[in-house]
Amino acid sequence: MESIKFGNLLINFTSEFTPLWNDQGSGSVRSASFWRPVPSSDFLAGYFPLGDLAVPGHDNINKRNIVAVVKEGEPPGSEALVKDKALSQPDDYELVWKDSGSGAYANGSIWRPIPPEGYVAMGLVCGTGHDKPSRNAIRCVRADLIIASYVGELIWNDRGSGAYKNFSAWSIQPPGAASGEVYFSAGTFVGVGSYTKPAQHITAYALRIQIPLKVNPPPVAPALPSYAQPSPFEAGSISHVAEICWFTVKDPNLLPIEQLRTSPVYRLERTDRYVLVGFGHNKTTVPQNFKWTATRGKTEGNQKYSQIPLPLR
Question: Is residue 60 pLDDT above 90, yes or no?
Fold first, then answer.
């Protein structure tokens, strides 16, 4: 699909991953695996993950899960001289947890990227063994391009593993979006050295984009060339057009992976038209009152409507 642009940030999606670590052999009550997004196609050259993915279970998630990946884009003309780059490598990593003592078949560790000033990390990163990940593994995002988010549902904890230190991984839940915007999780996770859900987390952030809206001129008011009753319905015209991304729509006919491949953009149109509320022709020589009731809004579902008297002399 065509990349989404927000400022000088380019956003796209991948369904390809490389496995990093899983808890097999650890004795943990829950099972989980950790994966790194791979922007492997030619179309995604130059894209980077924002963090790693934690999922329950040990099944292969390739071509089943979808996460966001990002790339540096060209800034809009007005921002070229005043905005920094959209992306940056982390300055370093801080160890959050390692599986020492767990008995897992492979060693694993979880790290927090430390972003440069003005940037934020959007989730945690899984190390191969107990080694610190490469600074080039992920990218941090300029702070004005993202939105602070909530800690979501539990993904996994190591309870029962025997590891020397406790750990739990949690999803990231974006807040309600402002008008004209969309907030969405990059698919990354947060984690803490306990089994208690944190009230907030330093890497709990979501991506944000604007909904492009095209506004056309409103329909021309109908003319009344004679005393004959006009048509009850005038021709409609499209007054607003918005194109929204696949992940904002729950399509009953497509799975998310199918939406990304076959229907990455959905088009919304608003059509406006004039409707005849009432018609009156005073054929006398004295003033007369005409009154009609107009319904505003819709009457079905849970939408409210009201009736407005329209007097005319």
Answer: yes
* pLDDT at 295 (0 to 100): 76
Q: What is the 3-state secondary structure (H, E, C) of 205-256?
A: EEEEEECCEEECCCCCCCCCCCCCCCCCECCCEEEEEEEEEHHHCCCCCCCH
Strand partners, 308: 294
Phi, psi of 78 (to 5 degrees): -70, -20
Please give the average per-residue pLDDT across 145-149, as a whole number: 97
Q: Kindly state the helix (H) or strand (E) to which residue 311 belongs, with its residue range.
A: strand 305-312
Q: What is the mean pLDDT of residues 201-209?
A: 96
Per-residue pLDDT tens for 285-312? 898 888 888 777 654 444 444 444 444 4
* Residues 6+ away with beta carbon under 8 Å from 122: 50, 51, 140, 141, 146, 172, 186, 188, 203, 205, 206, 207
3 three-class SS: coil
pTM of the model: 0.83
Are 270 and 287 contained in the same domain? no
Task: Give the domain extent around 300.
Answer: 280-313
pLDDT of amino acid 86: 96
Q: Is 144 helix (H, G, I), strand (E, B) or coil?
A: helix
Domain match, 93 and 43 both? yes
Residue 302 class from Cβ within 10 Å (0-12 exposed, 13-18 middle, 19+ buried)? exposed
Cβ contact 291:310 at 8 Å: yes
Alpha-carbon separation of residue 299 from 58, 273, 295, 304, 310 (angstroms): 50, 18, 9, 7, 19
Same domain as 18, residue 146: yes
- Count of domains forming the chain: 3
CA–CA dist 287, 295 (Å, integer) = 26
CA distance 151 to 132: 25
